[in-house]
Amino acid sequence: MFYRPEDGHGLPHNPFNALITPRPIGWISTRGKDGHDNLAPYSFFNGAAYVPPQVMFSSTGTKEDAGDTKDNVANIRETGVFCVNVVGLADRDAMNASSEMLPRNVDEFAHAGIEKTECETIDCPRVANAPAALECRLTQIVQLVGKNNFVVLGEVTGIHLRDDCLVDGKFESATYIPLSRMGYREYTAVREVFELARPDD
């Protein structure tokens, strides 16, 4: 099968949603200038650079009370900061609950029953029990082709690591089982890990 996205695929579900998998989930927390906190998962998320450490996530779509985007991007525009919380399998239901489209003044932490605490280097909340959290300062927001498509890039200014996730000096994914997005409504829990050495190592 071959199709041009502009012509449509003719399938009951969009195959593009299932082609780039698994995708790490950036559980993004922000605080607006009005003091309202927000938390939502983004599966168009990844690291972008090592030195200095940088991350990116993409937001698509819009909400009536957030202008041309969604609450987190609107907050980041106002404050210039955000936090990326790592999602483990134990938080799958809370993460999913925080994805609900709620009014801008509703705190998803409270809505989903998630304990929050303050960041150290930025004025922003974070998920208190997340395996890791990356405090970020905005470097740029890039508008992509298409309506309401934005990429947000940030420099990591502080990193929280949960103590039980450190094993023999390494951040160990087996201690929390990373949750990743597959296609459509499917997710996966990363339980099998193996090492490969580069040929030139």
From TrEMBL:
Species whose genome carries this gene: Sulfitobacter porphyrae
EC number: 1.5.1.-
SUPFAM superfamilies: FMN-binding split barrel
Start and end residues of each Flavin reductase like domain: 18-173
Signal peptide: none
Transmembrane segments: none
Enzyme class, UniProt record, top EC level: oxidoreductase
PANTHER family recorded: BLR2425 PROTEIN, FLAVIN REDUCTASE LIKE DOMAIN-CONTAINING PROTEIN
Pfam families tied to this protein: Flavin_Reduct
Protein name: Flavin reductase family protein
Source organism, top-level taxon: Bacteria
Keywords: Oxidoreductase
GO molecular function, one term: oxidoreductase activity
